[in-house]
Amino acid sequence: MYYVVLDIGCSECGESSNVLGIFTSLEIAKQSLEDYKKRNRLDEYSDHEFLSIK
Q: Which superkingdom does the taxonomy of this entry point to (predicted)?
């Protein structure tokens, strides 16, 4: 099984969407998302939404 993690950007402010990765482990997918949020200083107040597809 594969897990695709996406960063859905903001069309109003011009932030692009990004594919964060395709993973074979849910745990690694979740960790990758948390690392991405931390590295890019994204929190609950940002205009980004994140999507994980199984």
A: Bacteria
Q: What residue ranges do the domains of the chain occupy?
A: 3-53
Residue 53 sits at φ, ψ, to 5 deg, of: -115, 130
Token pair of 37 as six digits? 């949020």
Q: Exposed, middle or buried, 11 (CB in 10 Å: 0-12/13-18/19+)?
A: exposed
Query: In terms of Cα–Cα distance, which of 3, 6, 4, 15 is closest to 50?
Result: 6
pLDDT digits (tens, 9 = 90+) for 7-39: 887 777 787 888 999 999 999 999 998 998 888
Q: How far apart are the C-alpha atoms of 47 and 54, rounded to whole Å?
A: 23
Rounded average pLDDT over 30-51:
80
